[in-house]
Amino acid sequence: MEAETHQLLLKYIFLAKCFLLAMGKGSNVQKKQAARARHEKEASKPQGGGGLAGKASRTGANAPKVVCQICRTEFMASQSDSQLMGHVENKHPNKTFADCFPERAKAKA
């Protein structure tokens, strides 16, 4: 009788282990796989870098600029002529737009 009970117990343990292995690890498996895929995607992007190496990419130093020829103030090239005219009127009231921004004045004409 004890041998039969022992065999039944072993069969039960074996079946329980097989059942647990077949079920997987639960809902965290999908979360873990999604996180791993997200991290791999982020790791494949080029890094901006820190310090002096990545300063140009962080600050937009390589972006085209418009420079006032009188005070050497830099403006982004995407600024409109009316915004640049505001600079001329406020900072250099005795000068013309062409004096401050000759490239833009040529393009305008």
Q: Could you walk me through the main structural features you see in this protein, from its secondary elements to its overall organization?
A:
By secondary structure, this protein is mainly alpha-helical. The chain has a domain at 60-108. The chain is 61% helix and 6% strand. It is built from 6 helices and 2 strands. The chain has a two-stranded antiparallel sheet with strand order 1-2. A hairpin with a 6-residue loop joins strand 1 (65-67) and strand 2 (74-76). The longest helix has 22 residues, at 2-23. The radius of gyration is 35 Å and the shape is rod-shaped. The model has no long low-confidence stretch (mean pLDDT 82). InterPro entries: At2g23090-like, At2g23090-like_Znf, ZNF706/At2g23090_sf.
Helicity range: 55-70%
Distance between the termini: 108 Å
Largest sheet: 2 strands, antiparallel
* String of helices and strands: HHHEEHHH
CA-based shape: rod-shaped
Low-confidence stretches: none
Total strands: 2
Strand content bin: 5-15%
Helical region count? 6
Q: Can you list the strand order of the major beta sheet?
A: 1-2
Specify the structural class.
mainly alpha
Protein name: At2g23090-like zinc-binding domain-containing protein
Domain At2g23090-like zinc-binding: 68-103
Organism: Blastocystis hominis
Pfam families: zf-met2
